[in-house]
Amino acid sequence: MAQNNAVAGMNALNGVELNLFTNDELKAIHYATVEVMQNPGIQVSDPEARQVFKENGCEVDEESQVVKIPEYVVRKALQLAPSRFTLWGREKKYNTLIECGGKVHWTCFGTGVKMCKYEDGKYTTVDSVDNDIAEIARLCDWAENIDYFSLPVSARNWAGKGAQDVHETFTSLTNTQKHFHHIDPVGENVEYYWDLAVAFYGGDAAMAKKKPIFSMLVCPTSPLELSVNACQVIMKGARLGVPLNVLSMAMSGGSSPVYLAGTLVTHNAEVLSGIVLAQLACPGASCMYGSSTTTFDLKKGTAPVGSPELGLISAGVAKLAQFYGLPSFVAGT
C-alpha cells in the first residue's frame, strides 16, 4: 500500500527531545571556543603534529608547544569532516551507520582492569585477562542491543610484557563479528592494529582502508592538551582510513571550569583541536565528536559517571555535535 505523503516543511518530532540550547546559544559557545583555541591556544606535545598545524596556517610556539588555531582553519576542517560513515563489521549484518542526527546506537564501554567473579555464592574481584575480553566479545555478539564492540577490560596478564594493546586488539578482532572500537590505542602500535585488519582481508590493504573493521577512541588531556600519543593515534588513524572518536574526559571543577558552561567551552576546544588535526593529516577523515565529561566530586575526589551533571553535559555535547554536523558519541550512566 502507498504510504501517506509527507507534508512539505513539516518538522516532525518522532521521539522525546531534550533541547538545552538555542542556535544562538550554540553560536555563543562556538565563539567562546574559538577564542580559547587562539588564546591561550592548545598545547600540542607532538613535534610532528605541531609541524602539521604550522604548515596549515596556525601559530606555533616551539618553546611552550602551544598552537593557536585560527577560526578559518576550524571551519575548513568541519567542512571536510563527513557527517556520516559506516563502522564495518566482520559480518555485513553488523555494519553500523553512524550519522549526525541519525539513529541512536549502543556499545559496551571500558576499559576496566578488574572482573567480578561469582562462585559458590560469593563475589571475588580479580584482574581482567585476555580471555575475559574474548568472553565479553562473544556475549556482545549475542546481545542484539549492542551495535558494536568496545574494548571492555584490559588484558592484565600481558601488562609489562610489551604490546598489551596489540594482544587486546587481536583478541577482540578474533572474537567478535561486530565492529571493534579500540578505546585504549597506543600511537606507536597503530600499524600493528592495521596489519591485523589487513590480514582479515587476505592482505588487501585497499579493502582494509575502504571497509575498516576497527576504529579508535583517543582522549585529549584536560585542560587543553593533545599529548604525543593522542596526536600519533589521530594522524596515523586518519591517514590509514581508520575512524576516530575524539573524546574529552574533562572533570568540571577538577580539570575544567567548575561551571558547566565553561566546561563545555574547554571540552569543545579539546575535541575540535583533535578533529582539526585529523582533517589536516587527511582531509575527509571519519571522526566522531566524543564525550565522557562529567563533574568532579570535590569531597571524595572521584569522577561520578552516574551524576546528573554527566547527563546534562552529554546532552549539551550531542547538541554541539549536531551544530557542527558531526556524529556524536557520549557516555551513559
Protein model, in words:
The chain has about 325 residues and is of the alpha/beta class. The protein has ten helices and 16 strands. About 40% of the residues lie in helices and about 15% in strands. The strands form five sheets. Strands 8-9-10-12-14-16 form a six-stranded parallel sheet. A four-stranded mixed sheet has the order 2-3-1-11. Helix 1 packs across helix 9, helix 4 packs parallel to helix 5 and helix 8 crosses helix 9. The termini are far apart.
The low-confidence runs, each spanning 5 or more residues with pLDDT under 50, are none
Largest sheet: 6 strands, parallel
Please work out how many helical segments DSSP would assign: 10
Strand arrangement within the widest β-sheet reads: 8-9-10-12-14-16
Span between termini: 42 Å
Strand content: 15-25%
Instruction: Name the overall outline.
Output: globular
* H/E element sequence: HEHEEHEEEEHEHEHHEEHEEHEEHE
Quaternary status: single chain
Q: Indicate the mean pLDDT.
A: 92
Tell me how many strands there are. Answer: 16
Assign the structural class, choosing from mainly alpha, mainly beta, alpha/beta, alpha+beta, or little secondary structure.
alpha/beta
Rg (C-alpha, Å): 20 Å
**DSSP helix fraction:** 25-40%
